[in-house]
Design brief:
This protein is mostly helical. The chain contains twelve helices and six strands. It has a two-stranded antiparallel ribbon. Strands 3-4 form a two-stranded antiparallel ribbon. Helix 3 crosses helix 8 and helix 5 packs across helix 8. The two termini are 26 Å apart.
């Protein structure tokens, strides 16, 4: 396999102030000795904040409740959307993503071709991990605090309040807005410095380092993943090393509209007028006037995808095999995915308003086929692809 530059994040990969964490990961894959650095005082605070449920309105919800370390910092349940709020029973609107491998995400921008790229969250509205951490504390369906002042008041009563003062100043709690910014900064530092957020120790990482082989089914799956006329996954999820040997992130941070089916398990969809349009709303508002972007969501990393329990931005599928089947059979067998209207016509792309359905990707493989044509992948090839994707799971143990 030859190495080529991975678009988007490679320069950022080594510019970040915590590049030593990732350089350490790369070095260890090549057999070099690399000792993990102790977390900074701010990152140590961030770790305590991350697991502190007392900072929520219910007193039962922490960052780790939805971003469970035991599940690659994604939910440990099969709910399409997570529950939060003051009583812990308010449903969210989107499937909760993993927090692993986010620290190298570039800020949102439009690239040289005018295409959106980068940003954290499924709509890219957060420019940094610190900014991303702000909203959950205040969102009514998440930690549900009434204000940043309320969060800081709870922080001031926490067991680590004295440590917070020691790191950020004795008078920090007298300045609630500044204290809240320091809180989110601490969470960012924790995610950047803690090696568990960027392990790079999957079977595929070891394979790239020539430490373990892939079996035949995994190799077939990799070939299908990269094949432009079959899976074509690498077009958005690059699988090769980047600049200076950086491990592949399996995302190019681009955006796509896949026309996934509406998910009735999300309570908000009971309102026929409700649509989650990704880049153009409702959560993100600055691009609401750009109709061509409506329905587009950021391409996620596929690292640890085999550990997920729901897939796509609305969690509509609960099996990886079904997600892959949708990719290759969406256009050839639409009746398998979408409901029919009263006249029996399949309502394709039913989670996108009719006026924006032309935005759905129908030109790139495997979406460039028509009804009745053979899908790009057979059932056996999908099985091979699933086996390959399982090699992207962190924590692979070499068999002795």
């Amino acid at each position: 396999m030859t190495s080529q530059d991975q678009p988007g994040a490679v320069a950022h990969f080594f510019r970040t102030q915590f590049a030593h964490v990732c350089i350490c990961a790369v070095a260890s894959l090549h057999g070099a000795l690399c000792l993990a650095a102790e977390l900074s005082p701010a990152a140590q605070l961030g770790r305590q904040i991350f697991f502190d449920a007392s900072l929520s309105a219910s007193g039962r919800l922490s960052c780790a409740s939805c971003h469970d370390p035991a599940h690659a910092y994604a939910p440990g349940n099969g709910l399409a959307v997570q529950l939060g709020g003051a009583d812990g029973n308010m449903a969210g609107y989107r499937a909760t993503p993993s927090l692993r491998y986010l620290e190298h995400t570039p800020a949102f921008r439009f690239d040289e071709e005018g295409a959106p790229n980068g940003g954290i969250n499924r709509d890219g509205r957060a420019a940094s991990l610190a900014e991303q951490a702000e909203r959950p504390f205040l969102a009514p369906h998440e930690m549900a605090n009434a204000s940043t002042d309320e969060v800081v008041e709870k922080l001031g009563r926490s067991p680590y309040a004295a440590q917070f003062r020691q790191v950020f100043g004795d008078a920090i709690f007298a300045k609630p807005q500044q204290a809240f910014r320091r809180l989110t900064h601490a969470l960012q530092q924790y995610q950047q410095e803690e090696p568990d957020f960027h392990r790079y120790d999957s079977k595929y990482d070891l394979y790239l380092a020539n430490k373990v082989p892939l079996d035949l089914a995994e190799l077939r799956g990799l070939a299908l993943f990269n094949d432009e006329r079959k899976g074509n996954c690498a077009a958005c999820h690059p699988s090769v090393r980047g600049e200076r040997g950086a491990p592949p992130l399996f995302t190019d941070f681009s955006y796509d509209n896949l026309g996934v089916p509406r998910n009735a398990r999300i309570p908000a969809t009971a309102d026929a007028a409700y649509f989650d349009l990704g880049l153009c709303g409702p959560d993100r508002t600055d691009l609401a006037g750009k109709g061509a972007l409506c329905g587009a969501f950021k391409v996620p990393s596929l690292r640890n995808v085999a550990t997920r329990q729901v897939f796509f931005h609305n969690g509509v599928f609960d099996k990886l095999t079904d997600a892959l089947r949708f990719y290759v059979r969406r256009d050839t067998h639409p009746q398998e995915w979408y409901p029919r209207d009263k006249r029996g016509k399949v309502q394709k792309f039913n989670d996108v308003p009719a006026r924006y359905r032309a935005n759905v990707n129908t030109t790139e493989a495997p979406f460039d086929r028509r009804r009745g044509m053979a899908p790009a992948l057979t059932a056996g090839e999908i099985e091979d692809m699933v086996k390959f994707l399982a090699t992207l799971t962190d924590g692979y143990q070499v068999q002795q």
